[in-house]
Amino acid sequence: MIERYYEEVAPGYGQRFTVDTVLCDIQTEHQHLMIFDHCHFGRVMVLDGILQSTRQDEFIYHEMMAHVPLFAHGHAKRVLIIGGGDGGTLREVLRHKTSTHVTLVEIDGLLLDACREYLPQHHRGAFEDPRTRLLIQDGIRFVKESAESFDVIIIDSTDPVGPGKVLFTEAFYAACRRCLAPGGVLVTQNGVAFFQLEEVTSTARSLSRVFEDFGFYSAAVPTYIGGIMAFGWASDDPGLRAISPDILKTRYAAAGISTGYYTPHIHRAAFVLPRYVQAAIDTKSGFISTF
């Protein structure tokens, strides 16, 4: 019986959870999946030994993945989510009345089935929404071959290991751009910046070669330990990244969405990054800490 889950974030440093009940412990075609209950964080999902999401704090990550690009865009109708098999980002996207067609492309069908069963508070019925189209296939293949265009593309991926590795390449971002409608927005998951700064700088190099405008924003998610979580941003419209607070407030009020983390003020502030992160992005190379 598994009694403890331990994740090493850096040599000699990590986080540990007691395991109350193991609900799912399987090896899929693509990765090892475990879902268990924890006394404080509730239901916890782990892929290949890396914590992905918990019931207690998932709203922070999923709100920032969805609402930042959707409120910045303002009238996104067609949204593509690559990854996101737990359904949390899909749930938040569907809260926008403007989202009339939402496609979720997930490579791992067994993961999707397990999340349907064991993470109901993540998806809250989003998979059954008539606006949702679920596709079990490779995300990079989809964006390379699809003839469709999308107003917003959200890359809700794992870290760049296993099946998620290809979702951090310049070729993938270029394929995403060909699927973006004019004025569209791409957002990506880019890890905890303090420990995964190379992931941020690598994405910065790739996005800068593909898009007219790129940047990063952040959020503090307790179980993504070690500092702020970074999200990549790219568009052919630089104005969307600097959209005015008044417009954001108007759109937020009109949407009638109640959020636990996201606000128009958080939206604007999230693009202000710590100096060590901004320095690494500006030089598009590794940043060596001197403290």
Provide a descriptive summary of the structure in words.
The chain has 291 residues and is α/β, with parallel strands linked by helices. The protein folds into 2 domains: 4-54, Spermidine synthase, tetramerisation domain (Spermidine Synthase, Chain: A, domain 2); 58-283, Rossmann fold, CATH 3.40.50. The protein has 10 helices and 13 strands. It has helices spanning 58-73, 88-94, 109-118, 120-123, 139-145, 170-179, 197-210, 245-255, 264-270, 275-283, and strands at 4-10, 13-18, 21-27, 32-38, 42-47, 50-54, 78-83, 101-106, 132-136, 150-156, 180-192, 213-219, 229-235. The protein is globular and about 50 Å long.
Describe the SSE topology.
Elements: E1 4-10, E2 13-18, E3 21-27, E4 32-38, E5 42-47, E6 50-54, H1 58-73, E7 78-83, H2 88-94, E8 101-106, H3 109-118, H4 120-123, E9 132-136, H5 139-145, E10 150-156, H6 170-179, E11 180-192, H7 197-210, E12 213-219, E13 229-235, H8 245-255, H9 264-270, H10 275-283
Parallel strand pairs: 7-8, 7-10, 8-9, 10-11
Antiparallel strand pairs: 1-2, 3-4, 4-5, 5-6, 11-13, 12-13
| Rounded mean pLDDT score | 93
Distance between the termini: 42 Å
CATH architecture assignment name of the largest domain: 3-Layer(aba) Sandwich
Q: What does the overall shape look like?
A: globular
Calculate Rg over CA atoms.
18 Å
CATH superfamily of the largest domain: Vaccinia Virus protein VP39
Q: Can you tell me the residue ranges where pLDDT is under 50 for at least 5 consecutive residues?
A: 285-291
CATH topology term of the largest domain:
Rossmann fold
Structural class: alpha/beta
What's the CATH class of the largest domain, please? Alpha Beta
Written as H for each helix and E for each strand, in order along the chain, the element string is EEEEEEHEHEHHEHEHEHEEHHH
Number of helices: 10
Instruction: List how many beta strands DSSP finds.
Output: 13
Largest sheet: 7 strands, mixed
As a percent range, the share of helical residues equals: 25-40%
**Widest sheet: strand ordering:** 9-8-7-10-11-13-12
Count of domains: 2
Percent strand = 25-35%
